[in-house]
Amino acid sequence: MEEKKGYVARSKFIIASPFKVRPVADLVRRKAYPDAMAILENMPHKGASLIGKTVKSAASNALDLNKKLDEDMLYVKDIRIDEGPRMKRVWFRARGRADMLLKRMCHITVVIDEIAKAGE
Q1: Considering only CA atoms, which of 108, 110, 111, 109 is closest in space to residue 16?
Q2: Does the pTM of the predicted model rise above 0.90?
């Protein structure tokens, strides 16, 4: 797997279905950092707040490592929502039966880069 250039933040073992989080990630991929944060803060989805925390962490990593950067110079280069392990729980049903309840987890990876580097 090729490592992407830029500033990376990862959130692992988040209890949220990756199928529900991916559409939110598609809305902010390749957007400027302030625009992406504005979109995520105004969305009612659980995935929006989870992705927002990870994007904010990646931007913080970028600003701490490179003091010349400003928030307006950053953009969301890539967001990847990978499937994590599943927690299996017993779900009791009628007539003494039981089903398996799968609580899905996901891993969120955000790569943030400079806008100036994107043109190079």
Answers
A1: 108
A2: no
